[in-house]
Amino acid sequence: MSVPTDHFRIRGATLLDAAGSRVEDLGIADGRIVPVDELDVQAIEIDATDCLVSTGLVDLKAHLGEPGDEAAETMASGGEAAVLGGYTTVLAMPDTHPPVDTAAVVEHIRMLGASALCGVEVAGTVTVGAAGERLAPLAELAQAGVRFVTDCGAGVQDPLLLRRALEYAKPLGLTIAQAADCVPLSRGTHMHEGEWSSRLGLAGAPAEAEEINVMRDISLVRLTGGRLHFQTLSAAGSFAIVSAAAQSGLPISSSVTTHHLRLCDADLAGYDTCLKVTPPLRAAGDARAAMSAVAAGRVDVIVSDHRPHTTDRKERPFDHAATGSVGLETSLAAALCSGIDHSTVLRAMSWRPAQLVGLGDPETRSLRPGAPADIVIIDPTETWTVSTASMATLGTNSAFEGTELTGRVRSTFVGGRLVVDQGKVAA
Amino acid sequence: MKHLLSIDELTTEELEELLRITPSFAEVASRRIAKVPALRGQTVATLFYEDSTRTRLSFEVAAKRLSADVLNVSVASSSVNKGESLRDTAETIEAMGIDAVVVRHASSGAPWQLTKWLDASVINAGDGWHQHPTQALLDCFTLQQELGDLTDRHIAIVGDIKHSRVARSDVGAFTRLGATVTLVAPPTLLPPAIETWPVKVSHELDSVLDDVDAVYLLRMQKERMGEALVPDLREYTALYGLTAARATRLGPTIPIMHPGPMNRGVEIAADVPDLDQVVVVDQVRNGVAVRMAALFMLLGSGAGAVPLAQPDQVAEVSESEAVSV
After folding, report:
1. Is it true that the peptide bond before A4 is cis, omega within 30 degrees of 0?
2. What is the pLDDT of residues A131-145, one digit of tens each?
3. Cα distance between residue B150 and residue B132, in whole Å
4. In chain B, whose CA is at the least distance from the CA of A200?
5. What global pTM score does this model have?
6. Which residue of A117, A355, A413, B53 has the lowest C-beta tally within 10 Å?
7. Structure confidence by residue, pLDDT tens digits, A7-33
8. In chain B, what residues touch A318 (CB-CB under 8 Å)?
């Protein structure tokens, strides 16, 4: 009796994958994409006229709360947020309690992740406890299936330790992921240093605090040949430096968040703590540089950097408020209505991150028959207003709260299972 | 006008009106019974998260001279932990039916956040490095007493501009009234992007002194030494302190101002504060008058419109109603 729910025919949509776009019906059966003539006659029809169909989104940076911060998010709530935002796989960040620095914790997170509607990939830490002092058992983590290791926060500060991590991780197929932040230049700051920090009387971190560590880390990649992913770049200079280094053939990749694309330091004029994020929202010129870097394909990935908080952590004075914004349910829309063309957005949110995290190349993870049915149907014209009160995440902190966005997920399939239907979590 | 949060949020008309009505409140203070019933029945709470005897006292005296009831909400610095929710405090105050909250907070922006959860008027009595609007008003009023119209007058503000809410407020107010402002400080004590401020900048006090109509000294805090902003206080004093020699060079008619409390021997030489041209005491006295004007504008009969000080509201209260302050 499982046939009707396992077979779907998606009608009238524009299919968009790395091979290009085409208007064609799509069949889903038994967890895979199939030719429509192989579908059961009872297959459920989904009318997706005027919609876009893409391979499911993959998020390379989300904090899912569990274990340790269940008041802010759980795998169940974060998983709902993910699939509502079009994500079929999320890379869970390892700064949990306990941190993901052994294979045992990896297994535990996998077990917890089974309660999420999306697939959960597990990232490990670079150093024990993400404390930045000695290497975590990277081979053990790699054997447990970890592909990305990151200490989160400001990243590994000690250049010798980072050198060793890059060298040691290289034959293990691990990517070291980190934000670029030179802590001695950014310690005790709460926003971007510039005209607005000057006016608002808040201590600011200069863009150079990021750029210095971008340059340092690139040098260490050149020295070691290890693979490095720059998480959530924000400064105009960083995009230029990273893109030049990537063009020279170094094994580096990079990401940016949608709030760094769409917002800037001037938006902090009212001291809204939901706009306090790490790295800080930069100047308008940095946001423009981020936008053109994404549009030109010089940034590999757009991440949500989903970081849920309970309300009380944001209802504090600005310099004491927690940092971060939720993002799983807003990132796709914020990117789609930014003016960047749809295939570039989907490359940065689906095809490229899937490749980086080992879910498959655009040739195998496509909309062609035989590919896994991780699929999202997007209505690129629906306009809606962001309100965390009506979102699935338990976090109440959205940098886009009250903002009107255009583009919304209509349906999401994870492994052939319809988990979002008509924009709502399927019962 | 609902709140008084920053000089930037005041219109030039509101700024000028506040300064225009201040003398009638200064006059009240000179009466035998220094009290008028303008705010009778209204309650003003002072909510100070940061110690400041002077500013709190000044607001308290101002409110009492207008016959408002004053509640001093003590937030002992020891009990202010970093997890404190501003909203909880705001809702507690709201529940008590307070008409205005005078708030001092070590965090920039805290008064803005309070307005989200309060119906009461909020008066910023200093937030972090950001703003201290009544200080700027009293400084403008004092300067006008000394110099008259401030148009094209040249005022030097000397010292730690970067961490100073007084400097941020004064620059806005002085330039709005037509004055030219030169900030004098080492580069490490200037805010970032200083080129976006409507000021001139100098790193040499001696080159500025010959050409100023007033000198405003800021308090130099010893903590700045530990942050590699200035090598040591002795060097700071040698380069940026108002030494006796510099005071002499300034001449006897140029007003010297300071927001207090002064570090004698650091930003100002030990004997300089005793010179006639030092107007620090006038600043303190005028502080009460401008705070009366501000409270009246927010809570008095003219609240909501640009008010005029009505003679009947500034009339003396009968002796039986008077309470000494």
Report:
1. no
2. 999 999 999 999 999
3. 20
4. B130
5. 0.93
6. B53
7. 999 999 999 998 899 999 999 999 999
8. 107-110, 113
d(CA A235, CA B259): 38
Q: Tokens representing B71?
A: 């509640």
Query: Does residue A137 contact residue A162 with C-beta atoms inside 8 Å?
Result: no
Alpha-carbon gap, residue A183 to B88, rounded angstroms: 33
Residue from B124, B4, B112, B140 nearest B52 by CA? B124
Mutate to test the interface with A, among B5, B107, B117 (most CBs of A within 10 A): B107
CA distance B243 to chain A (A): 29
- Which tens digits make up the pLDDT trace of B151-206? 999 999 999 999 999 999 999 999 999 999 999 999 999 999 999 999 999 999 99
Contact B113 A273 (CB under 8 A): yes
* DSSP at B278: B
Rounded Cα gap, residues B89 and B105, in angstroms: 13
Please tell me the distance from the alpha carbon of residue A408 to that of residue A330, in angstroms, as a whole number: 9
Is there a contact between B196 and A320 if contact means CB atoms under 8 Å apart? Answer: no
Positive or negative: CA dihedral A322, A324, A328, A333: positive
Amino acid at B149: D
Which residue of B85, B108, B110 is in closest CB contact with A312? B85
Question: How far, in Å, CA of B169 to CA of B131, rounded?
Answer: 5
Q: What are the C-alpha distances in Å from B195 to residues A194, A198, A333, A336, B190?
A: 10, 11, 37, 37, 11
A308-348 per-position pLDDT tens digit: 999 999 999 999 999 999 999 999 999 999 999 999 999 99
- As given in the structure block, the two tokens for residue B22 are 């201040």
**Residue A305 falls in the annotated catalytic set:** yes
Q: Within 10 A of B271 (CB to CB), how many other CB atoms are there?
A: 12
Question: CB of B116 within 8 A of CB of A311?
Answer: no
User: How is chain B split among helix, strand and coil, in percent rounded to 5?
Assistant: 40, 15, 45
B37 lies within 8 A of chain A by CB: no
- E-only strand ranges, A218-311: 227-230, 252-257, 301-303
Which of A340, A331, A339 has its CA nearest to residue A408? A331
Contact list, B85 vs chain A (CB under 8 Å): 312, 315-316
State residue B123 phi and psi, 5-degree precision. Answer: -115, 125
